[in-house]
Amino acid sequence: MQILILYVVTAVVFLVVDAVMLTKVIRPVFETHLGDQLRDSPRLAAAALFYLFYVVGLLVFVSLPALRADAPVQALLMGALLGAVAYGTYEFTSFAVMKNWHWQMVLLDTTWGTLLTGGSAYIGVLVTRAVTQTG
């Protein structure tokens, strides 16, 4: 039950916060540099697969070890590291091979992925601890 709670809380935080940031901040910046290369709306199946698997990876590599160690700050820091690596890989690779990729996009999205991943892991661990602690 603990893993299910951790997954649901982490996924909901990640999805809700990311949806706001993507629509209000990131998309306008990407539109400035990519223009009509962006789709009018995302491919939802691809987005869903990303979110489902990314949160699984976050739990396996970050949140579960932090929860077992009773160390929410560990989730924050290691989640931030995972986010920087994952989002940075995408952004720097895109910058290296795409004509219209811009440094502003790289810095914004890599920073966002770092904060989002670390924050989601941290909140997931804190809420799961609070809900499942006995005594």
TrEMBL record:
Keywords for the protein's UniProt record, in alphabetical order: Membrane, Transmembrane, Transmembrane helix
A family per Pfam: DUF2177
InterPro entries in UniProt: DUF2177_membr (IPR018687)
Transmembrane regions: 43-64, 71-90, 110-131
Listed name of the protein: DUF2177 family protein
Organism: Lacimonas salitolerans
